[in-house]
Amino acid sequence: MIVTTALEILERGGLSNLSLRRIAAVLDTGAASLYVYVEDLAALHALMLDEALATAKPAKTRNGSWRDRLKEFLLSYLHELLKRPGLAQLALSIISTGPNAMRIREQLFGLLKEGGVEDARAAWGVDLLTLYATTIAAEQDKRRAAGHGLGGVRKALSAAAEVVLPLTSPLKETQLAGDSEAHLHWALAVILNGFERTKEISCNREG
C-alpha cells in the first residue's frame, strides 16, 4: 500500500512532490509509522522503482533476431520509466536489486548470450545497455517536465552560418532527423556492434 501510494503521488506530482510525510498524509497516518515498513526514503525509492519495472516485458515472440528482441525489451524498459514523471531520474540515482530489476538483468544477459557475446562482455554489457536506456529516459523526462523541445537547437543551427560552422551547418537537418525511438535503435545497434568487435576486457580493478 505504501509503494502503490508513493507511485500514485509520483505520477500526479513528480519526484519533488514525494516525501514520507506526504505519503503518510494520504494514508491518514503519521510519517513515523512508515518506518516500521521502510528504512528511509531511499529504500522506498528502490521499492517504487522495482514495482514500476514489473510491467517491463520481453519480446512477445521468439521470432526475429536476438538483436531485435533485445531492442524491443529495452524500449519496453524505457517506456516504463517514462510513464511516471521523475521515475527515470529516480532510476539514475539508485541501483535497484529487487526481483523485477534482477529479472530484467537476467533476460538481457540471456539475449546477449544468445547472440554469442562471451560472459565477461555480456555481464558488463547489461550494465551499459540499462545505463544508456535509463539516461535517455531521464533526459526525455527532464525535457518534458521543463517543456523544452528541440526548437532551440533547430533555431541555433538554422541561424549558424556555414563559414562559422562549416561541418555542422550543412548537416543541420540530418542532426535533427528521426524521432527518439529511431535514435535509440541506431545507438543500440552501435553498442551491440561494439560488443562483437571489442575483444579485450580487464577485470583487474576493484569496483
Report on the architecture of this protein.
α5 (66-82) packs parallel to α8, α7 crosses α8 (119-146) and α8 (119-146) packs antiparallel against α11 (180-197). By secondary structure, the protein is mainly alpha-helical. It has helices at residues 2-13, 20-26, 31-34, 41-52, 66-82, 87-93, 99-114, 119-146, 151-159, 172-176, 180-197. It starts with a helix and ends in a 10-residue tail after the last helix. The mean pLDDT is 84. The protein has a domain at 53-148 and 167-197: Tetracycline Repressor, domain 2.
Name the shape in a single word: flat
For this structure, what is the CATH homologous superfamily of the domain at 53-148 and 167-197?
A: Tetracycline Repressor, domain 2
Indicate the low-confidence ranges by residue numbers.
none
The CATH top-level class label of the domain at 53-148 and 167-197: Mainly Alpha
What structural class do the secondary elements suggest? Answer: mainly alpha
CATH topology of the domain at 53-148 and 167-197: Tetracycline Repressor, domain 2
What proportion strand?
under 5%
Tell me which CATH architecture of the domain at 53-148 and 167-197 applies here.
Orthogonal Bundle
Residues in helix, %: 55-70%
Described by its quaternary structure, the protein is single chain
Number of helices: 11
What is the CA-based Rg, rounded? 20 Å
Number of strands: 0
Along the chain, the helix and strand elements come as HHHHHHHHHHH
Q: Biggest sheet: strands, sense, closure?
A: none
